[in-house]
Structure to design on (371 residues):
């Protein structure tokens, strides 16, 4: 796929976009085969190569009357509103936001002078509900003006469901702060994957590639069905994607996540789906340390840093029969598997969430040996 921003060196977010997509998949599959040299790998789950992103994170640059949405490459402001990774509806959304920035007089934050207010525009889309929009500001200075002019934006943009302002006052490379002001009547966005409806709050983590995420969760469901577990733990469960896909009347499911707001989303989704899941806002390692009995199946979906030595040791001690590991970092995945010597990989599959990059999402099923 040809990209002018990449060809000119202005944007390097997709370092392999010049390669054929087949070559990209083969490279990632080869990397995965190095981790599992004796395991016949499943065929990789491909992605669309364009228009697959359901969210955008835009740095706001320029001026209040001539805003630029994109990235800052050294000192160059790079407009990414025409990026081919976004579905076509994003271009219209960006145009409305540029007009809104002009209307409100939101001055983009300037790194060199440390002046200005608007740092980022964070935009998410759900086919089920519409749009979630977040303005990341340095202070509350323009909060009243945004509230005042928001009805005009909503009239132009009827599918704009959730609007918030996030405050990030520090002069650091941090995307968002802790304080969030909800300006719309709705505070959650629904996202449907397969037959499961998930709830997302403004700071919720959610996969950027909905189609591939749906395939990941369905595969986890298919692999789990053959195991027939009676008890499942889903550690690092987030808003409940795996737990909600694996829940059934015959299975006792527990979901553990440190974020209380994510647990609120997961609990609401389970209630509306009519399934009984024990969601708890706890640290995953602390929960495992306090547990007296292991589940039949342990599902883990840790952040990029992986499970870590302490949790791996606890898993070895608890001895769950099976482990379903969803990893966004093959390097830490390989390290964790070395710390889980009692578990033998049975299946592994690549899910290409981010074409044109080195990012690889991997699902691995492991069974405990020797007991």
């Amino acid at each position: 796929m040809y990209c002018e921003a990449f060809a000119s060196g202005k944007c390097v977010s997709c370092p392999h976009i010049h390669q054929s997509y087949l070559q990209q998949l083969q490279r990632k599959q080869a990397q995965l085969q190095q981790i599992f040299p004796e395991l016949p790998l499943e065929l990789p789950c491909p992605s669309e190569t364009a228009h697959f992103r359901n969210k955008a994170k835009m740095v706001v640059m320029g001026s209040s009357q001539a805003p630029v949405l994109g990235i800052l490459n050294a000192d160059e402001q790079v407009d990414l509103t025409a990026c081919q990774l976004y579905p076509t509806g994003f271009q219209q959304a960006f145009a409305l936001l540029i007009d809104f920035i002009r209307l409100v007089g939101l001055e983009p934050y300037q790194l060199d002078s440390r002046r200005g207010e608007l740092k980022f525009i964070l935009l998410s889309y759900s086919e089920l509900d519409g749009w979630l929009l977040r303005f990341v500001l340095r202070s509350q200075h323009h909060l009243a003006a945004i509230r005042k002019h928001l009805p005009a934006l909503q009239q132009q943009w009827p599918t704009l469901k959730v609007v918030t302002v996030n405050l990030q006052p520090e002069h650091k490379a941090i995307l968002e702060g802790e304080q969030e002001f909800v300006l719309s009547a709705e505070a959650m966005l629904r996202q449907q994957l397969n037959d499961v409806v998930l709830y997302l709050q403004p700071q919720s983590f959610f996969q950027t590639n909905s189609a591939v995420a749906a395939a990941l969760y369905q595969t986890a469901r298919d692999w789990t069905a053959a195991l027939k577990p009676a008890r499942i733990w889903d550690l690092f469960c987030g808003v409940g994607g795996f737990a909600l896909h694996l829940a059934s009347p015959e299975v006792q499911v527990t979901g553990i996540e440190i974020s209380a707001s994510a647990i609120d989303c997961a609990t609401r989704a389970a209630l509306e789906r009519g399934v009984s899941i024990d969601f708890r806002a706890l640290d995953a390692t602390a929960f495992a340390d306090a547990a007296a009995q292991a589940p039949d199946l342990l599902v883990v979906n840790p952040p990029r840093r992986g499970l870590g030595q302490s949790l791996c040791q606890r898993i070895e001690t608890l001895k769950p029969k099976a482990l379903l590991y969803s990893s966004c970092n093959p390097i830490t995945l390989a390290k964790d598997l070395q710390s889980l010597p009692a578990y033998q990989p049975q299946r592994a599959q690549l899910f290409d969430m981010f074409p044109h990059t080195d990012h690889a999402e991997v699902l691995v099923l492991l069974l405990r040996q020797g007991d």
